[in-house]
Amino acid sequence: MSEASSEDTFISRWFAALAGPAGLGLRDDAALFTPPPGQDLVVTVDTLVAGVHFFANDPAASIARKALRVNLSDLAAKGAEPAGFLLSFAIPQDAQSPVRTDVWLAAFSSALGEDALKYACPLLGGDTVSTPGPLTLSVTAFGTLPKGSMARRTGAKPGDLVFVSGTIGDAALGLQVLQASASAGITGLRDVERDYLVQRYREPLPRHVLAGAVRMFANGAMDVSDGLAGDLAKMMRVSGASAQINLAQVPLSSAASAALQADPSLLDTIVTGGDDYEILCTISSARAAGFKAAAHVAGVAVTNIGIVDEAAGQDAVFLDAQGREKKFQRASYSHV
Asked: Does 266 lie in the same domain as 175?
């Protein structure tokens, strides 16, 4: 980006084309959004910082996709359909930063636009500033759903079955592959498996097509962003319940299975590492078949990994294949 570029020119060149009608072409100070009649508005925000949530040298397209998709994952876990998003973009002041080049910005805005179209979530507005620190992106996403139908984190009930979508642990292992100091610890993998894990870390897959099933069937729901063990504990804590989880039932990709077979100690990373962006939800046993059928129609695998109990001093108990309790040194990633 040349020094002569004004903020208005910057926005017009790289982001105006991504705006939906509510964004008013990004030519005003605010967006104008009206939820459809009979709909609630769901709002979520996530901030990503280079060197913390992604690598500064990650592809620009991957950074753009991750910034939006982690928010879409939150919406899906509430049962909401995407409606639009705001983007705050803090650009490093360092003149040598690739973020200030046309090549980087073209790749970033192109990927962001592709995802905005793919997920029917147009850009509504935002803010652009410079920073002496690292690249920082903050996305606020909006979703809609029928009034009173949001799946709350607080809704898990004793007797509910615990389900997760997709597979767990891929992103955390992908992060280890990318970290030079730890990559040697990921052994027994083919290049294609390592590439798969890295891709899962860089570009999460929000389960937006499950939103309707979550809305219809889930008593409690959230997305898995900070680690399965920690996020499950959060849900149980605010629901006043506990859960018993069978570790052998936690779904793994073939790449994660190969890594775990080569190094069983990676189980902790898989269950607590975070960045999965899968849906964690609880469903009454009477409605479980309906939920699984809806997920099948949506084309997303869901797996029953345990059951919700009455609270008994522990938010969640993880049992191995022999029925022995497994303790984790750290339940989840901590942001502070």
From this structure: yes
Q: Which residue has the tokens 């909006």?
A: 142
Q: Are residues 173 and 139 both part of a single domain?
A: no
Residue 194 in any domain: the answer is yes
Q: How far apart are CA 203 and CA 275, in angstroms?
A: 10
Percentage of the chain exceeding pLDDT 70: 91
Domain match, 130 and 240 both: no
CATH number at residue 233: 3.90.650.10
Residue found by looking up tokens 């962001």 in the block: 112
Summarised one tens digit per residue, pLDDT across range 158-185 is 999 999 999 999 999 999 999 865 445 6
Q: Can you spell out the DSSP letters for 319-333?
A: E-TTS-EE--S--S-
- Report pLDDT for 243: 95
Number of folded domains that form the chain: 2
Provide the domain limits for residue 319. Answer: 153-326
Tens-place pLDDT, residues 77-102: 999 999 999 999 999 999 889 999 99
Identify each DSSP E strand in the chain by its residue range.
39-49, 81-92, 123-131, 136-146, 161-165, 220-224, 241-246, 278-283, 302-310, 316-319, 325-326
Question: Which pLDDT belongs to residue 90?
Answer: 93
**Do 269 and 182 share a domain, yes or no?**
yes
Using the structure block, give the residue that is written with the tokens 């191995």: 320
